Amino acid sequence: MTVTVDDFRTVMRQWITGVTIVTAYSPAMGRARGNTVNSFTSVSFNPLLVSICLTKSTETAQAVLDAQAFGISILSAEQEILSMRFAGMDSNFPADLDRFTGVPTQTAVTQSPLLTEALAWLDCKIWAIYDGSTHHIIVGEVVATSLNQSPPHEPLLYYNRAYRRLMPPD
Q1: CA-only gyration radius of the chain, Å
Q2: What is the pLDDT of residue 130?
Q3: Can you give the pLDDT at residue 153?
Q4: Pair 138, 54: CB distance under 8 Å
Q5: Other residues' Cβ atoms within 10 Å of the Cβ of residue 164
């Protein structure tokens, strides 16, 4: 049986994910870069490790490699428009404008921009990088975290090519 790219995409659309924005400040570029990423997971508690996957050809991937660090901002249900912007899918946002324009950020240890209004964030130093064909599989050691104490407290979810929200428990 041969699996096509379309077959693979159709099946993978059945996996629900949270939505993050991965960021880095590149000294070589002299600026921050960021992309929407849903390929993110915890790896280890000792040491504290997470993984992300970034398309090799993106400026964000280059910024992460340059900085040897990255930030992960976990988006809340109210931040769908930021997800679209950092994915390059917001048709109302000028393509030549810096995606961070008007977005409150802060830094922790690595100088990676962290979205102040995100549900939570993690600041990471690169632990390891693996080849994933078109993507870098990047494992990061978590060096700082924060949970936003202000409402809302629901994550932005992505399933079958659409943003979703949690249903209230019965």
Answers
A1: 16
A2: 98
A3: 78
A4: yes
A5: 14
pLDDT at 119: 96
DSSP output for 39-92: -EEEEEETTEEEEEEEETTSHHHHHHHHHTEEEEEEPBGGGHHHHHHHTT--TT
Supply 38's token pair: 């849903």
Closest CA to 147 of 114, 123, 120, 122: 120
Residues of the chain with pLDDT under 70: 152
CA atoms within 13 A on the CB side of 39: 13
pTM higher than the cut 0.90:
yes
Q: Where are the domains of the chain?
A: 5-164
Element (H, E) at 127: strand 120-132
pLDDT digit string, tens, across residues 21-67:
999 999 999 999 999 999 999 999 999 999 999 999 999 999 999 99
Question: CA-CA distances (angstroms) from residue 23 to 1, 42, 85, 94, 103?
Answer: 39, 17, 13, 19, 13
pLDDT at 123: 98
Superfamily of domain 5-164: Electron Transport, Fmn-binding Protein; Chain A (2.30.110.10)
Give the single-character DSSP code of 116. Answer: T
148 in helix, strand or coil? coil
